[in-house]
Amino acid sequence: MRKPCTILRDISLSIHPGERIGLAGVSGAGKTTLLNLLLALKGADAGSITCQGRVVRPASVRALRWYRRLVQYIPQDPASSLDPRMSVRELIREPLVRLNVVAHHDRRIDEALDRVGLGQKFLGYRPDALSGGQAQRVAIARAVALRPRLLLADEPLSGLDLPVRARVMQLFDDMSRLDGTALLIISHDLSVMPRLCERTLILHDGAIIEDRPTQALFEAPVHDHTRALVRAARLDHTVITPASTPSFHPVS
Ligand SMILES: Nc1ncnc2c1ncn2[C@@H]1O[C@H](COP(=O)(O)OP(=O)(O)OP(=O)(O)O)[C@@H](O)[C@H]1O
Ligand SMILES: [Mg+2]
């Protein structure tokens, strides 16, 4: 039998409509574990999660359907999450049917495909006919078609070329600004946070050690660990800053 161990500690987190939050931390920090709790795929030993005033308990799939409609997920390795037997149309329709979403499904499918920049011709394609970047966008379209209130995305930009990255970032902007969707974006790499997220959390050894506006976190990291992550982001990548804000100065 495996010895019990504590993976997450003292997590306190509120996410408001339209907020874009980054969650960063090194490998093993607990990012996926936190994501699984937020998705109600796992239960915590202590504490609770509430959404729109209702407690989210580990419960049957049926009892959690209301929550599954509100909270969607873009997996880190989307190609492997797509059923190879299904066409793109069926893949985007499947969650709408499974979650009993009352809507014009074909319209939702067309709209979602358009929002991720894929043309109608892809509707009949199966995953093996898609490139990695196209498969990633189909996985994003599946989540977008449900019009979630909270979208959790695990490394959503990795593996995308620059024009597609820009398109997906614009989609996230639109979802938060126009639809009021809250976004929680996981990345081991801090360099994408200034462009994508107004607030960034740093997870370290299962605890949130920083939860601050992204710009402040970049300009004056409080913890040594955060300082190291910021420095690594600057060394490895060009930090993507929003067009409207000046570039951040390097941390010495
Ligand atoms: N089922 C489990 N049983 C025991 N330990 C686990 C289990 N799942 C995860 N862990 C441990 O919890 C810690 C956090 O794991 P987690 O997968 O959440 O990290 P992560 O931040 O997502 O890392 P990565 O960036 O590598 O994906 C790790 O030390 C891991 O070994
Ligand atoms: Mg992980």
Characterize the main sheet: 6 strands, mixed
Quote the CATH topology.
Answer: Rossmann fold
What is the CATH level 1 assignment? Alpha Beta
Please give the radius of gyration in angstroms: 18 Å
The CA-CA distance between the termini, in Å, is 48 Å
For CATH, the homologous superfamily is named as P-loop containing nucleotide triphosphate hydrolases
Average pLDDT over all residues: 87
What is the H/E string? EHEEHEHHHHEHEHEEHH
Q: Give the fraction of residues assigned to helices.
A: 25-40%
Judged by helices, strands and strand pairing, the structural class is: alpha/beta
- Percentage of β-strand residues: 15-25%
Number of strands: 8
User: Order of strands in the sheet with the most strands?
Assistant: 4-5-6-1-7-8
Q: Do you know the CATH architecture? A: 3-Layer(aba) Sandwich
Shape: globular
Ligands, ions, cofactors: adenosine-5'-triphosphate, magnesium ion
Count of runs of 4 or more consecutive helical residues: 10
Q: Spans of 5+ residues with little confidence (pLDDT < 50)?
A: 243-252
Number of domains: 1
Keywords: ATP-binding, Nucleotide-binding, Transport
GO biological process, one term: transmembrane transport
GO molecular function: ATP binding; ATP hydrolysis activity
InterPro entries: AAA+_ATPase, ABC_transp_ATP-bind, ABC_transporter-like_ATP-bd, ABC_transporter-like_CS, P-loop_NTPase
